[in-house]
Amino acid sequence: MDNNAPVIGFIHNISKNQMKYLNSRISDFNLGKEVRYIMMIFDNPNCSQEDLVAFYGESKANIAKSLKKLEDDGYITREVNPENRRKYMLKTTPKANELVPKVRQISLDWESEVGINEEDEEFKQKLREIAIRGMKLIEGV
């Protein structure tokens, strides 16, 4: 691979490969990218569909389709937000809550296999900061 390639290409490659690894380890759950939505909802109870759209940069239609699948499969629930009746608060179910520790361990295993360790905390924090700045950069675009 060319060392002059844009950094974003490497980041995309890392993301795709991590998802392939994860999905190969949880294939019996019949989840694809939806697993990352479960993780986000677990970590942020009462988040909304709009929160997922903003974080993942996916279209509202794609997120809605995935959330419908997760709800039908018993991984999440949607409750009307009492402060804004047009929005739903998302929560994980006990079924999803059982899956989360398994996914976290698989993710840690992947990080270890590719050489990410405790010493890389500064690197991981820098990536978080870049992701947040990127989301802010495209707000309203």
Report on the structure:
The protein has about 140 residues and is mainly α. It has a single domain, classed as Orthogonal Bundle (Arc Repressor Mutant, subunit A), CATH 1.10.10.10. It is about 60% helix and about 10% strand. It is built from six helices and two strands. The chain has a two-stranded antiparallel sheet. Strand 1 (about 75-80) and strand 2 (about 85-90) form a beta hairpin. Helix 1 (about 5-25) crosses helix 5, helix 2 (about 35-45) packs across helix 5 and helix 3 (about 50-55) packs across helix 4 (about 60-70).
Kindly state the percentage of residues in helix.
Answer: 55-70%
Mean pLDDT: 89
State the domain count.
1
Terminal CA distance: 32 Å
**Tally of separate helices:** 6
| Biggest sheet character | 2 strands, antiparallel
Name given to the CATH homologous superfamily: Winged helix-like DNA-binding domain superfamily/Winged helix DNA-binding domain
Secondary-structure element string: HHHHEEHH
